[in-house]
Structure formats: C-alpha cells, structure tokens
Amino acid sequence: MSPQVKELGPAHFCFDQEDESVKYIAKHLPWYGPKYSPHDVPSFYDISGITEDPQAFQKVIDLFVERYRSQGAAGPTHIAGFDARGFIFGPPIALALKIPFVMIRKAGKLPGVLVSSGKYTTEYSTDETVMRLGSVKAGDRVVLIDDLIATGGTALAGFDLVDSLGATVHEFAAMVALPFLDGVGKIHSYKDNKFKDVVCFTMVDDASIGKEMGKDPPEGTPRVVPAEEVSKYAEAATRNL
After folding, report:
1. For 27, which of 53, 135, 183, 216 is 20 to 30 Å away at the CA?
2. Mean of all residue pLDDT scores within the chain
3. pLDDT at position 124, please?
4. Of 69, 123, 128, 132, which residue is the catalytic one?
5. How many other C-beta atoms can be found within 10 angstroms of the C-beta atom of residue 117?
6. Could you give the CA distance from residue 123 to residue 233 in angstroms, rounded to a whole number?
7. Which pLDDT score is estimated for 33?
C-alpha cells in the first residue's frame, strides 16, 4: 500500500513523512557538505544511496509507478527525465507503465532536430536543455521527473519545452523537495501563473532526511583519491546507511 498523500499547498502533494516507506527512503539519502560536493551548496544529496541499494531503489520506483498506474486512462502517456539524474528514475517507471521515456538533455548532447529551452539559471549554474522535435506532441500528457526540486529553474525549462511541442505537462515529480527554495511556488507563478494547476509531487522533504545523514569523511580526506592510494582512504570513505 502506498503512503498517504498530503497536500502541502495549491497543486503540491507529498507523501506522509511519518510513513515507514518514506522514512526508509530518507535513510538511504546521504548528503555531503561543500568540500565533498560537486557544487558549493550546504547539502548535496547523493542518490547513489538509493541506486546502490536494490531494495530502496525498487521501493522508489514502485511508489512512482503505483501513483501513475492508479490514474488509469487519465494518467501520463510519456515520462520525460532531466539530464542526468532524471535518466535514472524515469526509464524504469516508463517501462513498468509501458509508455515512452523521453530525454531532456543538456545542449550539445542530442543528435537530430531539437527544440531548445533557451538559457536558464539553476542553483548551480546557467544551463540550456533540449528535446528532440517530435518526441512529444499535442494530446500527450507528460510527467517530468528529476531527483529533486530546488529553485525550479531546470523544471521550468522542461515545462517550456513540453509546452512548445504542443503537449501537456501532466505532473512534475521529484524524489526530494527543498521547500525553503520555493521551486514549486516558482513553477506555479511562472508566466503569469500559466502552470498554476499542474500538480507537483514530491516523495521526501529534505527535513525528513536529517543531519545524521551527513557523510563527510574525516578531516584531511582528499576529495579525489589517486587510484594507487585507494587502500589508504577506503575506510575513511566508508558510510553506513
């Protein structure tokens, strides 16, 4: 049975954070501080805690699949994932639902005739994403999926791409939400509230993950270890989830 879904705000839904399944997923989401992260952010969530544990990974996929399967004929016709972590969750969901998976890629990565989002700003950088022209069309209902939602910049690029191709964003979905950055609010207020009625669904609130999931190694451990020194630092890099 899926966890109870709670409404966090207008068109924003999340699983009950007290549910044991949600707690289990949260306990498989370690985070790292700026010194051990690819970006200068206070907490960088590492989804390898999910992907390296088959039970946790399966649970995440099953919960998303159950949500969209229960919508029946009114559910999504396509799953579209963001480069790159949306490519991890999107394909198994799409396969289970027997619907297409569509890639939303960073500029310069896809062949063929493409549609561009134009430049946009995220919490990390300025980016541009593209989709293949013809990958979705009028009448399609597309779930946009990513590992987390922060400022909403990447999500909005996906909204613009799907909209420009004539399809409808059925829902935006993410495993982790960072509510203090108000990404969902920015989606709903974008372009004079154009997407205010599109549901945003998130699985785990960052507050549910907790400080104990911080896994920075002991002081002095290098960020990148030379191959010949792996044995020297292996214990320092070990994390218990």
Report:
1. 183
2. 95
3. 67
4. 123
5. 21
6. 31
7. 96
Report the alpha-carbon distance of residue 213 to residue 196 in Å, rounded: 34
Q: Three-state SS for 176? A: strand
Catalytic residue from among 7, 69, 85, 229: 85
Q: Which residues of 52-89 are buried (b: 16+ CB within 10 A; e: fewer)?
A: ebeebbebbbbbbbebbeeeeeebbbbbbbbbebbbbb
What is the tens place of the pLDDT at every residue in 181-190?
A: 999 999 999 9
In the predicted model, what is the mean pLDDT of residues 14-24? 98
At 228, the amino acid letter reads E
User: Could you tell me the pTM of the whole model?
Assistant: 0.95
Residue 81 pLDDT? 98
Residue 128 falls in the annotated catalytic set: no
239 is catalytic: no
Number of neighbours of residue 177 by Cβ within 10 angstroms = 24
Structure tokens at 116: 């561009």
Paired sense of beta strands 101-106 and 126-132, if any = antiparallel
- Assign 3-class secondary structure to 135-172: CCCCCCEEEEEEEEECCCHHHHHHHHHHHHCCCEEEEE
Helix boundaries (H) for 41-177: 48-51, 54-69, 86-97, 153-164
Question: Which segment of 33-42, 54-63, 76-85, 137-146 scores lowest on mean pLDDT?
Answer: 33-42
Torsion of Cα atoms, 57 then 59 then 65 then 70, to 10°:
-170
